Amino acid sequence: MLLPFRECYSDLSGPILCPVLGSIIPLSIPNSRIRLIRFIGLCASPLTFSYPPVPRIQFDSPTAESQFVGTIRWLPYENINLYTGIDGIPPFSVVLTTFLIPICISVGWSSTESYGKEYVIAFPIREFLMIAVSRMPDLSLFHVLPESVLIPM
């Protein structure tokens, strides 16, 4: 039933890049428009949440190989690519991450008066890094990305 959607969702760059856009857009907005910044941050996170359910539904758990494998060209002049894929636990961790980030932004909606813009920008960056940890089976990035999640803290 969901086979026609497999082509649309086989590329996992959407859930990886959507939080990046959600953190770049508020950078251009002045601090005086804090309500708009919070609204953009709050809208970008549920948009990221809308991506993972289809791969999770189509995920074949008895299969031992990586699924939804894709490539993102990172440094084309050096022929360095990022490989994305899902195996085992990541479908559930990505759904949990994308579910909790909008809740975290909502909880801090009124309590962050002085650094509201930085607060809203840090969560999509953290969301990007947490999704990238579970989606990229590259061994070198597997050791770098979990530590980079701590930077926005």
UniProtKB/TrEMBL annotation:
Record field: transmembrane: none
GO BP term, example: electron transport coupled proton transport
Keyword Mitochondrion: yes
Keyword Repeat annotated: no
EC supergroup of this enzyme: translocase
Molecular functions per Gene Ontology: NADH dehydrogenase (ubiquinone) activity; NADH dehydrogenase activity; ubiquinone binding
EC number(s) given by UniProt: 7.1.1.2
Keywords, ordered alphabetically: Mitochondrion, Ubiquinone
PANTHER family registered for this protein in UniProt: NADH-UBIQUINONE OXIDOREDUCTASE CHAIN 4 (PTHR43507:SF1)
Name of the protein: NADH-ubiquinone oxidoreductase chain 4
Organism, scientific name: Abies firma
